[in-house]
Amino acid sequence: MIARILTSLALPLAALLPQAATAESPVPLSQVVKAEILPGWQTGSGTHMTGLRLSLAPGWKTYWRAPGDAGIPPHFDWSGSQNLSAAQIHWPRPTVFHLDGVRSIGYQSDVVLPIELTPGDSTAPLSVRGTVSIGICDEICVPMTLNLSADLPRQGAGNAAIRAALDDRPDRSNADVICQIDPIDDGLRLTATIPARGIGKPVEAVIETADPAIWVSEPALRHSNGALVAVADLVPADAAPFALDRSGLRFTLLSGAKAVEIQGCTGG
């Protein structure tokens, strides 16, 4: 069944027409998600900080950049935009969900995703035209494509919701992560020793590679002398051992309201 959701927007500058394919939903799909492009402001470096606000019906969630085994990874395509050379999502701290022994990672209720846009010409108007593919889940999971259109103001003003989402990003840490890498039949086994003092317990760990096509298992965790030891399997599309770029590994530790992100690791 193909259903069309007409999303109500607070800003006349934004047009958003999502489409979804799904089984029967206990909630009318037109009530599942509302979306809004926040106009944002021009930063001191000449980029434009905007935001995508998603408001979900009670019980529904959407997914983080690394959604876990039960999640649907989001995808952004800005190729229809004018005067746009780059776009970076600044992901706020997500929530970890466990259901029937399977982990997913994402957001419930309202979430604002700050988006930093780099214009080709900072003195010219910036028009965003693109699509965002996301998954939303409650009793069922719905893959959705959101068609976005927004003409952003040249200067703009500060926005409290965007700033709050920026403040809620994981803290960056320069801690030295030690990685041991061993080949397995279909890829690699990564054993990462991550400094974790002050993180708190219980803690969840997420490991990402520079290549999103590489599947990374939910790591098995244990604590050892103030460090968190995380063991995960990394499996590429051809299911064979491969050369891993250690600098491209990203480790995110989540514990309640605390979140820390560490980039890269060294050999053990």
Written description of the protein model:
With 268 residues, this protein is an all-beta fold. The protein has two domains: 2-167, Immunoglobulin-like (Sandwich), CATH 2.60.40; 171-267, Sandwich (Immunoglobulin-like). Helix content is 3%, strand content 52%. The protein contains one helix and 23 strands. The strands form four sheets. Strands 1, 2, 3, 6, 7, 9, 10, 12 and 13 form a nine-stranded antiparallel sheet that branches. Strands 15, 16, 18, 19, 20 and 23 form a six-stranded mixed sheet that branches. β9 (95-99) and β10 (102-108) form a beta hairpin. It is globular. The relative contact order is 0.17. Residues 1-23 have low confidence and may be disordered.
Shape: globular
Q: Going by CATH, what is the homologous superfamily of the largest domain? A: Thiol:disulfide interchange protein DsbD, N-terminal domain
Question: What is the correct CATH architecture of the largest domain?
Answer: Sandwich
Strand coverage percent: over 45%
Classification by helices and strands: mainly beta
- N- to C-terminal distance: 52 Å
Which helices and strands appear, and what pairs or packs with what?
Blueprint: E1 2-4, E2 14-16, E3 19-21, E4 33-42, E5 48-56, E6 61-63, E7 75-77, E8 84-89, E9 95-99, E10 102-108, E11 110-119, E12 126-137, E13 141-152, H1 160-167, E14 171-173, E15 178-184, E16 187-195, E17 204-208, E18 215-216, E19 220-224, E20 227-235, E21 250-255, E22 258-263, E23 266-267
Q: What can be said about this structure in brief?
A:
This protein has 268 residues and is mainly β. The protein is 3% helix and 52% strand.
